[in-house]
Amino acid sequence: MEYGMGATYLENVDPEVRLEPFPLSFIRRFSKARADQLFIAEGLGDSMSPTIGTNDLLLIDRSADTLRVADQIWAFSFGGAGMVKRLRPRPDGSIAILSDNPSVAEDKAVDDELFLIGRVVAIVRKV
User: Quick count: other Cβ atoms within 10 Å of Cβ 100?
Assistant: First the structure.
């Protein structure tokens, strides 16, 4: 599945699911979650550049389901679109949606507009 750093629509998406063996010692460097709580998705777009680029692989931990630390990178749904961005809780109860690319403006989620899918715990890219 691809998550847009800008946005990708999640409705009627049937992601390709493959089970891939990974050494547990490799996965434990990034997460202590159970295997069924982890998945890998591809990044798409440039709004999280230079941190994440198109085709970078993102290890997403679905057991992380609460914003506890500001500015971590999350996969989430916002207005029906899947995104990967930094999230920052605000004192007024809203959540700032931040891109690492300085040319992309900050967005804001209020009430129940944002649904957390999981926290990005690793980024893997080809060099």
Answer: 16
